[in-house]
Amino acid sequence: MTEGFTSYCRRKRRDKVYGNNMEIQAFAEMYNRPIHIYSYSTEPINIFQGSYNTDVPPIRLSYHHGNHYNSVVDPRGLTVGAGLGFSSLRGTNNVDRDQVKAAIKAQQDQQIENALLAEGRLYSDLELTEKEIERMVMEASRAEYLKQQQQQLNFRESSTSGAEPSSSAAISGSSRSAGTADRVGEECFVLPDTVLTRSMQLLLAMGFNYIQVMEAYSIFGEDVDSMIYYLVEMGGTGASAGGSNRRKGKAAE
Asked: Which tens digit of pLDDT belongs to each residue from 45-63?
């Protein structure tokens, strides 16, 4: 590294500035796991920290088109949290799959129901708006008609009497709309003050967001493995092997 740490961090924050061998080396040390780099073959073209003596599977990355990395994972052997001192999910024999599937289905059904309710409220609001517009147009048309009738009446009276038009203004007879469309206030979701249990703190440290963790905890309690499996199946983004799905950089030759 030939630049100062502050300058390095400032440069890495720029858009389209990606990592390289040094960052991969740092990942290997952070996760305490070897990192294998593949490129269109089953044999790695480079290995970082290959001397590590550990029973944790290595992090595997595939290098493509000379410009980015993809994470290679085994869906049947999840290693969430492995190497970080967390309770990694090595196999799912201790997880009640039926319970997790039931929880996922219940969550999906709830999302569908919420979407249908939101769609129904939208159509109700549109109907109310259309009715309010129709009412306002009818009132405006009636006011204009009454105004014209009053003007014609004043003109006939003036022609009959032969007198000068009075200084008083014609009665407009216009009516103002008294009703307004209902306004739907924004719903504000406030997270309750909750004492974080040890399992909650663990999942939050692994990168899962607060809402997901609270949801998993409400279903499985302190069963960390089931909570992790549930969050992974639901698409949660925790501390996974290899980090993000796509890392860009220069291949290590």
From this structure: 888 887 777 777 888 899 8
